[in-house]
Design a protein that fits this description.
This protein is 59% helix and 11% strand. By secondary structure, the protein is mainly alpha-helical. It has a domain of 118 residues. Strand 4 and strand 5 form a beta hairpin. Keywords: Coiled coil.
Length: 198
């Protein structure tokens, strides 16, 4: 048998493919799969309850390594404004390509067959995800709209209050000030406003 490069152990074994049955390979494989499964489990929770957040360049550009495909994959899905957490990971794990490669990976590494299905998102799950994400995004947009309207209302009422203050100053203070400081009459209204921090 020729030398065999193992992607899990990241080394060449000169005893050939028999390497994968060895204790060292099997225990490394277990560690890899346990860690990988944690990420998948976390993502899976988002199928029933997707999490949508405002885009964050640091948090939402994360990638993950798919051992089955030997490929780096985007973790979240975003349009640069809103992010669906774990969306890209779940989508990747529902593709035909990932499924085929997962079967191949399990066969090649002689991994525990009981675990295999945990690394594949079924068509039904993918469909459910799409529906839930659509609903959650709609709710998110509604909430954002309400928030924007509320902020606009606050700004409007602040502006209204400002104008009221200005009006009362004109009526009450300015005439008095003009008597005390006659030069104010010559100042343009904008300068007076600045002086009064209005
Ligand atoms: Zn190995
Ligand atoms: Zn994959």
């Amino acid at each position: 048998m020729g030398p065999f490069y193992c992607e899990i152990c990241r080394q060449t074994d000169f005893s050939g493919k028999g390497h994968i049955y060895g204790k060292s390979h099997q225990s490394k494989l277990k560690v890899v799969l346990v860690k990988f499964l944690e990420k998948v489990k976390e993502a899976r929770r988002c199928i029933k309850r997707p999490q949508v957040e405002k885009f964050d360049a640091v948090e939402h550009e994360q990638k993950f390594w798919c051992y089955c495909c030997q490929q780096e994959i985007q973790k979240h899905v975003t349009d640069g404004r809103v992010t669906v957490l774990h969306g890209a990971l779940l989508e990747h794990m529902s593709t035909r390509e990932h499924r085929t490669k997962t079967h191949a990976f399990w066969w090649k590494n002689k991994a525990d067959p009981k675990l295999k299905e945990k690394f594949i998102i079924t068509e039904e799950e993918a469909e459910r995800l799409k529906e839930e994400v659509a609903k959650t995004l709609e709710q998110y947009e509604e909430k954002e709209d309400t928030l924007l309207k509320e902020q606009a209302d606050i700004i409007r009422s602040q502006e209204h209050h400002r104008l009221e203050v200005l009006q009362s100053l004109r009526e009450v203070c300015f005439p008095g000030m003009k008597q005390l400081y006659p030069y104010l009459i010559k100042l343009p209204i904008t300068v007076i406003k600045n002086l009064l921090h209005l």
